[in-house]
Write a structure and sequence with these properties.
Layout: H1 5-8, H2 11-22, E1 35-41, E2 46-55, E3 58-67, H3 70-83, H4 88-102, H5 126-144, E4 149-151
Parallel strand pairs: 1-4
Antiparallel strand pairs: 1-2, 2-3
The structure holds zinc ion (ZN).
Length: 153
Amino acid sequence: MNDDPIGSLDELYQEVILDHYRKPRNYGTLPGADRSAEGHNPLCGDRIALQLKMKGDVIDEIRFQGKGCAISTASSSIMTETVRGKTRAEAGAAFEKFHDLVMGKGNGADGGLGKLAVFAGVSEFPVRVKCASLAWHTLKAALEGSGNTISTE
Ligand code: ZN
């Protein structure tokens, strides 16, 4: 079956994804947040609400809440860890790298992906690419200040 990415992923990657799914980092609400956005992936039913606090151009604090599959929850958790303390431009660059990776365009060999590399196997599951990308699209919406609910459809 093609809809069980977790079971098909490399063992180490499975562990990291399941760990973030069970114990999502930066989960909850953020008092005093100055940016937010919500994301919805109707294909899978994943939902995420993202809140950010900026310090100048830097993402000082970030939290998310949501309900979704293991891939979307782990991706949200790892995304928040990745972009916290980064400037908008750095976060945008991380999104591009991540996007290339899950689209099967990046080989991850250039490094700099950190934990994001665990999503490399997702590129083999086109339906799951949206699960993995949801948090990043939502981040983009929050940074652009559109404040709307974004949908992967
Ligand atoms: Zn999903």
